[in-house]
Specification:
By secondary structure, the protein is of the alpha/beta class. The chain is built from 15 helices and 10 strands.
Length: 344
């Protein structure tokens, strides 16, 4: 709540009992985070956000970029209100604790589920200075992307760095890929571009357009952060694997050095029609690291695909894990070092 005892742009955060300090407006997160935070504290503003979030933000002096405005406008009013109501303001405010709750609400808004998520799921500790890793939404090639930049890229944006473009599973958000990969990105100095495809690529035509737009996504990203075009990689999860198969192995381009499949299987009946399905593979395909869960419903199809890909000359590492891929504990450092070493 606002207080006349504090300077005009201050705000006191209440979490069950009054706090002993005010949070300056300069310390608050910006954009969508600030809209949700103020809506959690102010019931009247919450109602205004549910009715017209962009106008409500403007009336409060909150600056929204184009992608943030699009995200708010595409969210149903009852969902916006629900996200604000579920936002938990910590009793000991600080940048680390505060941003966890806000980030979790944003994830919940995108997924449509009013649940709180752990900071590991959101990569939440991103409200830091320019020398630390950076996460942000970007509109790249006309697609909504969540980008993770390790320290080296933030510090030297004009120094060419490897890039991993990722597509999440059907029941996830693009932030899920940050949870999987960010420690490895920090360790090896590559950028993550996670595309929010489930919100935009609904029809087969939409999916085909996304596949065709991947080079443009890289070009747009390269306008701000230099990319190493000899070290570009793709990763899929589950239902997005057919799209990554199409982009990395069937399209006539030489962009991608290596590909990771985390479960899923390229489309088609590989057990009975592998010879025909593999015919379209391009010359000099990228290296492939394929994680297969023995309890995955598509396990037998995945094994048949691997046999066909190996016979077609794909440099393939098949990692069969006990149980399902979704429950497997994986070493993403090991995955990265393999595709970097074997990539063309």
């Amino acid at each position: 709540m606002t207080s006349e005892n504090h300077k005009q742009d201050g705000i006191t955060i209440v979490g069950g009992r009054p706090m002993h300090r005010a949070i300056d407006a300069a310390q608050l997160p910006k954009g969508v985070e600030q809209v949700l935070t103020l809506a959690a504290l102010d019931h009247t503003f919450r109602q205004r956000v549910a009715q017209d979030p962009v106008t409500a933000a403007q009336e409060k002096g909150i600056q929204l970029d184009e992608i943030e405005a699009k995200l708010l406008q595409s969210t149903k009013p009852d969902r916006l209100a629900q996200m604000s109501e579920k936002l938990v303001i910590p009793k000991k405010p600080g940048r680390r604790q505060f941003i966890k709750a806000v980030s979790a609400s944003i994830v919940a808004m995108v997924t449509g589920k009013a649940v709180m998520l752990c900071s590991g799921c959101t990569g939440a500790d991103t409200w830091v200075d320019d020398k630390d890793p950076l996460q942000k939404w970007m509109d790249l090639g006309g697609h909504t992307c969540y980008v993770y930049l390790p320290k080296t890229v933030v510090a030297y944006p004009q120094s060419a760095a490897p890039v991993l473009v990722t597509l999440h599973g059907q029941g996830e958000t693009c932030l899920s890929n940050v949870q999987r990969w960010y420690n490895t990105a920090d360790m090896y100095g590559f950028s993550l571009i996670s595309v929010n495809w489930t919100e935009e690529a609904i029809t087969p035509e939409d999916k085909d357009k996304l596949i065709a737009d991947l080079p443009q996504i890289l070009d747009n990203f390269n306008n701000q952060y230099a990319i190493d075009r000899s070290n570009l990689y793709l990763s899929s999860r589950g239902e997005s694997t057919p799209m990554i198969w199409e982009a990395g192995f069937l399209r006539d381009n030489q962009l991608w050095s290596g590909v990771v499949f985390l479960g899923g299987v390229p489309g088609g009946d590989w057990e009975n029609n592998s010879a025909q399905l593999i015919e379209g593979i391009k010359t000099d395909p990228p290296a492939l690291y394929y994680v297969i869960g023995k309890e995955d419903p598509e396990y037998s199809q995945a094994v048949a695909f691997c046999e066909a890909a190996d016979q077609a000359g794909v440099d393939l590492h098949k990692d069969e894990v006990e149980g399902s891929t979704s429950r497997a504990v994986l070493s993403f450092s090991e995955i990265w070092t393999w595709i970097e070493r074997h990539g063309r």
